Structure formats: structure tokens, C-alpha cells
Amino acid sequence: MRKTISVLLLFCVWQLTAHAQVQPFVIYDTIPIKGSTPKFTLYKHMDDWYQSQRNMKQTGRARKAWKMKGKAYFQYQNRVRIDGVFTSPHAAEKMKGTITYSIESQIQDSIILVTYSTFIHEPVYSEYGNTSYGRLLDYPKSPPGKCMEVEEWCEAVWADMKAVCRQETHYRTTKMLPKRLVRTKIYKAPPAPAPEKETVAKVDNYDHLKLENYLLKEDPEVLKAEERRKQQEEESLVKAVALEEKTAEKAKKEAEAEKVKAEKEEKKADLAVAKPAKVKKTKKDPYDDYDDE
Known about the structure:
The chain is an alpha+beta fold. Among the domains are: 19-181, Alpha-D-Glucose-1,6-Bisphosphate, Chain A, domain 4; 235-273. It is built from 4 helices and 6 strands. The chain has helices spanning 2-21, 39-52, 151-174, 220-274; strands spanning 27-32, 56-62, 67-76, 97-107, 111-123, 134-135. Strands 1, 2, 3, 4, 5 and 6 form a 6-stranded antiparallel beta sheet that branches.
């Protein structure tokens, strides 16, 4: 009895773990709408969208909840190529086919929420056989037993399928409403500040073994006196430099004054040489013109 209960418990734990790790692949998209648009108008446009889309069929509607449901599909062709990775002949052609999915759209206060789910890969049977991935899951690695090629190539195809699904669904979402009803200005909250990292001070467990902790330290009074002496020396040096600069400036001014004075005296002497001396005129003797007898 105990053995049976243990087996049941292990089975339940395994099921819960598998369910928690593997989730279906779901894509959520939103359409921001203008606040002045009535819901009835949005509901009418959404209904027209379901009716006009190719490869799509409406499967249900709920007028009171402003909801609609549908089924759609698109063609898928594997074009994955990886350098240096070789596959069996016609491996990519075996996956050619369609991917079907479900659609559910709901009109809310300021947006239309569109949910795409239940993505199923359905390859077309060919002369080379077919390889089906089945239902796409929100798991990075491809499901085991689905692709019998090189693991790197199989995972690349798995990622390519989901990327194509995102492109297809986003394109459909952009066509649901006319652009005049879509709100273009969207408020984005500022990013939250990054949490500050707490710095923990490192504790040196071998601090007591450091040599400086065992050296004799000088008296604080002696250190203060030495600091005062250094400060006085610096002040005296600054005063000496200032006095020397002042003396040099004074000597420079005196030299300039002497030079100016010498230039003035030189100019004065030059003027004295250039000007002729005045000859003193004496009274002429009238008898100087006659010879002595």
C-alpha cells in the first residue's frame, strides 16, 4: 500500500513539474485607441476585420463582454541554413506546410487586447515524407523526438517558426483598426532607477600580523611641533620670495629712471654743441684804419 502511494505521489510531482516547465506558446498584442472612440464603433470595425481577413474564420462573439474569437493559418516554409551544419536530403522540404492558431480580441477601456494561442505546425505530406513539430511551446529547445536532424539545426528551425508567428500576428494586429482610431502618443513611464549595490567592507583577518601595528609610534605632541615647524618654514620661504621680487622690481624701476635721466642729459649736451657761441661786439676805434706815421 505504501509503495503504491509513493508511486502516485511521484507521478503527481512529475506531472506538476512538467506542466510548470512547459507552457504553450502565446503571443499578446495591444492596440491603443483614442479615448473619444465609442466601443460600439470599435466592435463594428473589429467584426469587419474578422470577416475581411484572408485565411481566417470567426468562431464566436460576445457582445456584452466586447469579445470575439477566430481561427487562422498561414503558410510556413523552412529556410534555415547554418554554415558547417549538414542535414539529410530534403530535410527542409519535409517541414513545409501551415501553422494554425487561435485569435481572441477584447475591447477594454483604452486598448484592444489581442491574444494569439494554440499554434500548431501541420506539414504537407510529400514524396519525401514530413516532419511535424506539433504544438509550439514556450520553451527554447525543440521537443524531443520531433526532429531527427542535427540538434543545432532543429533548434534553429524551432526558433524560426516562433519568429514567423510573431511577424504574422503583428501584421494582422496592425490591420484591425483604421489609423484614425489608433492613439499614436503613448505615455511611457520612466525606467526605474537601478538598485544601488551594497558595498561590504572587506575584513582583513590577518590585520594583527601587519608589521606597522608593532612599530613604536611617535608622540603626538612631537608630530604637532614638527608640523608647525614645516608650516613656519613654508611661510618664511614665501615671504623671502615676495621680498626678493619686490627688491628686483625696485631695482628695475631705479635703472629705468637712471636711463631716462642719462638720455635727457645727452640730449641737452647735443643741443649745446649744435648752437654757436655768441660773439661779443666791441665798439670800433675810428683811428684803426690809418697807419701810424
